[in-house]
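A brief tutorial aside. Many learners find it easier to grasp structure tokens once they have seen a single protein encoded end to end. The record that follows does exactly this for Chorion peroxidase. Read the sequence first, then the structure, and try to relate runs of similar tokens to stretches of the chain.
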Amino acid sequence: MLRMLDPNYNDGNYELRLQTNGKSLPSARVIDVNVFLNHEIYHADENNVLLSPFSQLLAHDVSGMPNNIMLEKNGEAVDCCLVKNKIKDYPLCQLTIEYPPDDPVYSVYNKTCSTLFRALTSNHYYEFPLHPTTFINANSHYIDASEVYGSNESYALRLRTMDGGRLNFSIGDNGQMFCPFLSNPHKKSSSGNQNIDVEFDTG
């Protein structure tokens, strides 16, 4: 991935930068609540419900940065919100989102934190990592629906049935059609809900 701006890491390599006063950056959720909540302006004659998903479609088309998910010994993802893991100060957990006690949405559910891992770096793709840390865009940089059809020929062929121009698909427990499942669609999570851990094979 080419940089538009020079990197600005606190340690010069990977650690998130600090504010000019030396403190940690504010929580993304705090910024979201203070800047956007109750300040949204709707233009009914200009936008409809497709605006948000279409914008997300374009974003995923030109940028694909898989998370560098850290796993426990039992194969489950590390919960960066647990106190014991905060003490370990995992570098991959630096983006974990903390919610303020008076959060207008999450405080109702006693939710104070959400795990968010940082993206995969060049170290995952190449034998010799780039320094300072460089994150790799796994998608093509064009508006070509690569998040659906793939970014290279081999993956594009894998996603197709090669019959009538159709794409491969999987059928969920409810009978609905989905993108091909990567994991077992009947795998149960620790909460007992089905399909919560399903991953999809797409571009």
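Self-check: Confidence is low (pLDDT under 50) at residues 185-196. If you spotted this yourself, you are ready for the next section.
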